[in-house]
Amino acid sequence: METILKSAKKSVVISSEKPTVLIGERINPTGKKRLAAALVAGNLDIVRQEAEAQVEAGADVLDVNVGAASVDEVDMLPKAVRLVMETVDVPVCIDSADVDALLAALAVHRELAPEGKPLINSVNGEEAHLEQVLPLVAEYKTAVIGPTMDDEGIPDTSEKRLAVARKIVERAEGLGIPREDVVIDCLALTVGADSQAGVVSLGAMRMVREKLGVNLTVGASNISFGLPDREVINWAFLAMAIQNGLNCPIVDAAKVRPAILAADLVMGRDDYAMRYIKAYKKRTK
Amino acid sequence: METILKSAKKSVVISSEKPTVLIGERINPTGKKRLAAALVAGNLDIVRQEAEAQVEAGADVLDVNVGAASVDEVDMLPKAVRLVMETVDVPVCIDSADVDALLAALAVHRELAPEGKPLINSVNGEEAHLEQVLPLVAEYKTAVIGPTMDDEGIPDTSEKRLAVARKIVERAEGLGIPREDVVIDCLALTVGADSQAGVVSLGAMRMVREKLGVNLTVGASNISFGLPDREVINWAFLAMAIQNGLNCPIVDAAKVRPAILAADLVMGRDDYAMRYIKAYKKRTK
After folding, report:
1. Model-level pTM?
2. What whole-number distance in Å separates Cα of residue B268 and Cα of residue A42?
């Protein structure tokens, strides 16, 4: 199953037959005081810098999120999306819980890339959310991320997360959104608080991939929240998740690209290790 | 299913319910000129140093192999096993293709640890090998590693490797060796030469674990032979393999222990990340 994202100049294909697609996570003020303060002040310089740095580090798609206290997302999200689209060529993932902000950003996207197709992050399994966001996805013919949570929160078993994923996919199909445009996020919570957090998420990925066939994303770094030496944990989780069908994680490309290239190599998606060796040479020259 | 190894003073339990057991690979002259030369000269100082260093680095079991050109294994293997057993407390894995050397080393093991139980590395699916080695395993009540290769070589599909594993397990059981004392090695070849090498090995692990229930080892570093930045590839492969049931890889503990602790943590085998955090503190203090 292929999810195709498009900017004005570039297409990215998410498919289990192809190498893993990296969605850059760094344009997001959560936990980043400097970016949050700049956004409150209406200053987008950091957004431009992060856009360039992430693409240089190997990000294939950029998540754009401006949600922070005192930020007017309806004003700032379209501005940030415009700046990212004018700075780099990769497709964008428009990330907001505010439907008006999504709408304003989608208008900018349509203006700058009339034939483009962004990813919307996200529509979860909450009834109100499905009713608000899915019609936008249908109208603007975007792809959309569906995190496996509903009105009762994040389920604590793989089976229940599969059930939420199924609900999102079915509701989307009911509105004429093709299944391949729904990318499911099985969600990773920290193993520091719940030793089963990884197993539940990984199990859900395997089931969703097997039963629904859709492509999978996850915000991988949550798995190690609160723990030391986080990258080692993130790398292990990503390798296992990629084995289970994860193919477009939301990550810090500069930190995890070597591990993801290695996982693709082990999974048989890099003949003669050409991508792996090329990235190694670039990193060490 | 539990494989229990014993030295004179220590038991190690290999089980998918427990953290991964690390079998230290460094007492092996393959590719190590200095060790090979020392063994030819009858000098075992490096063996002692490697035994201490590996246990310090977190190895739970030590593989002991003295096979190199011009080394008399029947003389040197029992000496090396004796030295390792006198230097450190962990169980040993007696590693030789020479049956007389295995016999001589087993006699030493019985002398120093009458109640002990070593691992023998290995008996593969070749007819002659099964006939020679399995009776020793039965007589000395050891555990044994079974690499999935037979008279036709190393099969190129997961299904065929499962078939060889089944043959080894059945032949062992026919001699009264309990199934839990057979540890299967699904073998890793380099992905640099064959892009499917990882997929075939990982698939075999999942099948052997599911169909035969036995514990699994692998010499993990082969996966990255000939490639740069090998540890990143080895880490990715180990994480995926541990997810598929690998629970006692043969590794360089100093290089891969952080990745294996992370994989155990993600797999839900390290409550509150206590082992992971403890090892991190030791490494960085």
Report:
1. 0.96
2. 44
